[in-house]
Amino acid sequence: MELESFEMFKVLAVETRVRILDILKAQGPQGAKEIARQLGITAAAASQHLKILRQAGLVRSERKGYWIPYSIDSEALERYRRQLTEVCSCGCQGTGKWREQEFENTDLEALRKYEKDLQEELKSVRQRIKEKSK
Predict the structure, then answer these.
(1) Is 55 helix (H, G, I), strand (E, B) or coil?
(2) Which of 31, 32, 50, 132 matches a 20 to 30 Å C-alpha distance to 64?
(3) Contacts by residues 112-116 (CB-CB < 8 Å, ≥ 24 positions apart)
(4) In the prediction, which pLDDT does 8 show?
């Protein structure tokens, strides 16, 4: 399923859905109850978010008896990444890095904001490494 950019942003604009994707990426297939437990939400709320993610094509599910494990659709996630790269305005072309000429034509305030964003991202990466090292 190919979503328009605005539809994709609507799906991913909800933090809980992004957190669900993070759980599924890190831990593999999970049921709605386990996802709900990890997020501290009801199973019904998790199911609703999973339904939206499934309709958007980001997750898939296959019933196994009474258990319905949800998993990431890697191909769909890659399509989303490509779409995001197309609308990205930072000039990174999907590399996550600014082009050198962007630095030359950028004011000091924008560079400081970029530095702060990078520091936050680095902090997040370090936290994930710490969690996975346990």
Answers:
(1) helix
(2) 132
(3) none
(4) 77
